[in-house]
Amino acid sequence: MSDDGSEYSNELEEEITDLSNSDVCTKYQEASKIINLALTGIVGQCVAGAKIVDICQFGTTILETSLKGLYNKKVDGVAIEKGVAFPVCISVNEIVCNHSPLASEELEELKVGDVVKIDLGCHIDGYISVGAHTVVVSESVDSPPESVDGELGNVAVAAYNAMMVAADAIKAGAKNTDVTKIVEKVAKNYGVETVATVRMHQMKRYVIDGVKEVALKEPTPEDLEEGEEELPECTFDQAEVYAVDIAMTTGDGKVRPADLRTTVYKRNVEVNYQLKMKASRYVISEVDKKFPTLPFTLRHFDDERQARMGITECVNHGLLIPYPSLIEKQGAQVAHFKCTVLLLPSGTTKVTGLPLPAYFKTDKQPDEETAAVLAAIAEKEAKKAKKKAAKKKKKSKK
Predict the structure, then answer these.
(1) In what residue span(s) does the Peptidase M24 domain sit (predicted)?
(2) What class has domain 264-320?
């Protein structure tokens, strides 16, 4: 032992993996730029005649290609991991989320008037950014609908506004129950229902669904009897990251698994089992190698046939957690919006999400409190856009 007690001086300091580390913050922001780029690109593909699987693959290509251009310098001889953190899902009409079909499956092409929910995520060095958006299919990207059905307008505006005010409310010192009340108030004001099974989650490095959660509504006694869990109260802290996830519907909000193949799964890292089938061992070997902690789709496997054969045993023994496509009752209008927020010292910053399409309109007005928050957000974003434009103009003159 040295006289100054520095026998530990060669040990590495514990890595800081939250937003108090500026490098971590930059990685979240760069991943968020890619999410917004991919969302914008995918919106342009949602036209009549398009195939869902092609759109999913198009979005995946944007994510992977964009990530290839970033953080390619090795750190201590090790390459920085980058990739899809939640597979591109394209859920149409009554389907709420998690629909990411295989290339071998024949599905109907998109039709004019279809309501499409886009959902995806990516990560840089395990730091995850996610986003979701809702659009209506038109003949071409240059001819968006002028207006939509009144009920669809209500639910889309409600979901989008709820996302915006919820994102604003997630700040250091606030509680998850405060945000739930805000979302419930918006839904009630627009005469729609939240999708109860959708929740907002804290995100950490390589963790897309952290311990801290926010419910979209408080469960009723009937909901609790039916098995729904009441979330424990928690407080948000500075330097945390959250996925603000809002799904609303004109139906009753009690969705069920759709009669569609489940293709999205996540490894359950707490379970191990000696699998019997060769195809199952192939699946878990690929998962442990390529997708050890984050959700993936069977479409990402080189051997789709083996993946389809082996997935059942993996699920039956708890090695994989399925994300089934969820569906509302037929005829219900569903909207889904999601953004990523960073709790920075300067305040909560929303880093993903596209503007609400202009054709989503409603005759209903938000309550005074919600309207005031939305006005403040709009003013803040206008100032930010003006500052960005001035900076760009100044740069172009040089």
Answers:
(1) 27-203
(2) mainly alpha
